[in-house]
């Protein structure tokens, strides 16, 4: 099939490359000309495992092309995917300007009927707004083609994006058009082989499904973080509680890790946007408000422990920081808990020596040169003469470090662990003061 994808970000690029990989001819268009130049050279502008290989392979077959020219994309695709950003507006609602710009361009350039598919995360009613925008632009040209706008939300996770796209848990399609369902069934057939994962529903239900999925995952995390804070007070270990509750299949083990709070480009923005939808319809999202509040406090939790340990003024203190990305296997630092911690440490007068396996350039881009921030070449270089080690991202390489080397390099054997990587008893036996999240240490 001939497919076009608007947006070459995480979602657009993965969508384009995965469709090309199963034999489709795909054109991916982006307004960011630097990004398109890199992609045409086989260079992936972000860190996503497996992406470079998939990109180069499919560029070489000629089945995957990148352009900044929307006319090429509109003309090429039988199916046109919209996968552009929907960042939070000032009031927390989803900013739809990029989605609607693409809709307008499609309407300006279409010369035959097309199946338009929205993959961006958007509030209920957006597919209708996209359709109306296309119809208006067509109308300005004196044209009137039938237009189907399908809602096909994306559920991939950064760091596992290709596997998630190639082997999805489900493929949600919001449409009432039998023709569109048929086209989408054919397009997704290679990813839908061993059992039917296609769930067809109304457009509004599909749009809401995406937000509900992220909101329930964020809720699980905030719930566990709240339990973890209680565990600290009562002397329980949240890791043992996690095992105790997760073994009930009605609860399950996934997304029960307490820590320094959720981040990334999706959960924070989508919880806000869903709360905004409630307000727009005269309601109040009481649970989501609490989920957000707990998460905001959780971003401060490790800093509160640090302050309790050292006192309010951290002038002259230096901390080793392991992990800057919002989660492992990505260089993405959007809404990363490390960013909140860095500003709190700096405001209290501390210096930071940081290491992250993939997010160093991103940190350099965000913070530039600062006297109180040093980016180090290795986890051990970051420890050099620091007062304590702080862990913010659970990269695999941090899981079994050389603890004697850590002890030798730090001024004092103290670890603040925002991801609960180590066993508190063993750490005590090794001679460390070890503060996790909800491990029964009531520092706060
Ligand atoms: N990142 C994820 O893990 C993820 C997963 C599922 C869903 N989503 C949703 O998918 C959407 C895209 O997210 P992302 O992370 O890929 O965003 P992103 O910021 O990485 O990429 C968006 C891209 O769209 C491009 N763009 C903007 N306007 C354009 C236009 N008019 N024409 C062509 N390109 C244009 C931008 O230049 C950018 O490269 C969002 O709604 C997001 O919530 C993201
Ligand atoms: O038990 C857990 C699991 C995750 N997190 C944190 O939650 C955030 C989000 O993690 P994850 O969901 O793995 O990353 P994303 O790439 O943001 O993916 C989410 O957001 C995407 C964009 O909407 C969706 O497509 C995915 O299904 C959804 O998992 C990160 O900060 C994690 O550290 C926890 O604190 N505890």
TrEMBL record:
Residues engaged in binding substrate: 155-158, 210, 255-259, 263, 327
UniProt entry keywords in alphabetical sequence: NAD, Oxidoreductase
Name of a matching Pfam family: UDPG_MGDP_dh
Reactions performed catalytically: UDP-alpha-D-glucose + 2 NAD(+) + H2O = UDP-alpha-D-glucuronate + 2 NADH + 3 H(+)
Source domain of life: Bacteria
Presence of keyword Glycoprotein: no
Domain UDP-glucose/GDP-mannose dehydrogenase C-terminal: 320-424
SMART domains hit by this protein: UDPG_MGDP_dh_C
Active site: 266 (nucleophile)
Thylakoid as UniProt keyword: no
Annotated GO MF terms: NAD binding; UDP-glucose 6-dehydrogenase activity
Pathway where this protein functions: Nucleotide-sugar biosynthesis; UDP-alpha-D-glucuronate biosynthesis; UDP-alpha-D-glucuronate from UDP-alpha-D-glucose: step 1/1
Protein name: UDP-glucose 6-dehydrogenase
Organism: Thioflexithrix psekupsensis
Lineage, opening ranks: Bacteria, Pseudomonadati, Pseudomonadota, Gammaproteobacteria, Thiotrichales
């Amino acid at each position: 099939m001939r497919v076009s994808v608007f947006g070459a970000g995480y979602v657009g690029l993965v969508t384009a490359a995965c469709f090309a990989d199963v034999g489709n001819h795909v054109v991916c268009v982006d307004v960011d000309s630097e990004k398109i130049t890199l992609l045409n050279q086989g260079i992936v502008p972000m860190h996503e495992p497996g992406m470079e290989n998939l990109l180069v392979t499919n560029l070489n077959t000629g089945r995957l092309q990148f352009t900044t020219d929307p006319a090429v994309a509109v003309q090429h695709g039988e199916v046109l995917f919209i996968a552009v950003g929907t960042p939070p507006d000032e009031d927390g609602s989803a900013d739809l300007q990029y989605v609607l710009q693409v809709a307008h361009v499609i309407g300006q350039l279409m010369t035959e009927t097309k199946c338009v598919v929205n993959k961006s995360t958007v509030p209920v009613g957006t597919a209708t707004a996209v359709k109306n925008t296309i119809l208006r632009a067509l109308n300005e040209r004196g044209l009137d083609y039938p237009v189907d706008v399908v809602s096909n939300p994306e559920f991939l996770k950064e760091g596992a994006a290709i596997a998630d796209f190639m082997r999805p848990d489900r493929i949600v399609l919001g449409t009432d058009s039998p023709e569109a369902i048929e086209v989408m069934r054919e397009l997704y057939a290679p990813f839908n082989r061993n059992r039917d994962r296609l769930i067809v529903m109304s457009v509004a239900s599909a749009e809401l499904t995406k937000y509900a999925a992220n909101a329930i995952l964020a809720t699980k995390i905030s719930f566990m973080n709240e339990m973890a804070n209680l565990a600290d007070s009562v002397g329980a270990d949240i890791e043992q509680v996690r095992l105790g509750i997760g073994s009930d299949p009605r609860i399950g083990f996934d997304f029960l890790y307490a820590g320094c709070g959720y981040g990334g480009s999706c959960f924070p923005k989508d919880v806000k946007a869903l709360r905004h939808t409630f307000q727009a319809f005269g309601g109040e999202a009481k649970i989501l408000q609490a989920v957000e509040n707990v998460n905001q406090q959780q971003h401060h939790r490790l800093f509160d422990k640090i302050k309790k340990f050292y006192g309010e003024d951290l002038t002259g203190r230096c901390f080793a920081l392991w992990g800057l990305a919002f989660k492992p296997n990505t260089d993405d630092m959007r809404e990363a808990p490390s960013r909140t911690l860095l500003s709190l440490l700096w405001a209290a007068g501390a210096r930071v020596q940081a290491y992250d396996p993939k997010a160093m350039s991103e940190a350099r881009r965000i913070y530039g040169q600062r006297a109180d921030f040093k980016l180090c070449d290795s986890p051990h270089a970051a420890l050099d003469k620091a007062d304590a080690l702080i862990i913010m991202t659970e990269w695999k390489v941090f899981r079994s470090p050389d603890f004697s080397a850590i002890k030798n390099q730090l001024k004092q054997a103290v670890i603040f662990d925002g991801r609960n990587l180590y066993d508190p008893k063993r750490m005590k036996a090794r001679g460390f003061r070890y503060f996790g999240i909800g491990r029964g240490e009531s520092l706060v």
